[in-house]
Write a structure and sequence with these properties.
The protein has 249 residues and is mainly α. It has one domain. The chain has ten helices and no strands. It is globular, with a radius of gyration of 17 Å.
Amino acid sequence: MTALLFSIATFFSTCFGGLFALRFRDRLHYILSFTAGVILGVVSFDILPEIFKLSLAHGFDVTRAMVALVVGFLLFHGLEKFVLIHHVHEADYAVHHHPQVGILSAVSLAGHSFMDGVGVGIGLGFQVSSAVGTMVAIAVISHDFCDGLNTVSLMLVNRNTTRLSLVMLFLDAISPVLGATATLFIRVSAYNLMIYLGFFTGFLLYIGASDVLPEAHSRNRPDTTLRLMMLTCLGAFIMFVVAHLVTIG
């Protein structure tokens, strides 16, 4: 029950992050720069360490998770290049603005949020102990603000409507609640969790490298480049601090 209460807090944290992105959409390039740093930080200081931790603790071959990472990266790349933009005009193709890409990105982030509630985060954390569950829940609540920010930013930058952006924000916000609820009835095996994390990391790396960072710098003037880079570093640093605090806890 405690896990469910914490997951409800993630709902509001995610919504607040998404609404923040909507409110300051005219400064979207700054938000996207910060978002790119958050994505880099989540991958480097949260997901990848969790993959190696699972591998060491259970004697799994971590190569399989890395294969899943490559598959996730290339699958998203293939969907964007060969399926989603098949009928898009060549001029639009050059700027990588496609509503379907934003939706797919948002869905993949919602999948990560679901696993926040299940394995990486809240639900299974409390199956270990209350202390572990609480610390993990605090970390999830903290970075779910950025999840909401990321979801709306990716939707807006790919020319989706405000209404659809809010729908995807709600999906992302409710996902950890559903994930935490699922742990009351099921248990996710450590091996499947490791493979999922590798696969999702591939998605996330592609989103950050191919969509978020290029768009953040696409219209900036030379005098704003340093500020954008500092925001990216700030996003990564914040995720480092959150991950470090959880490790200490």
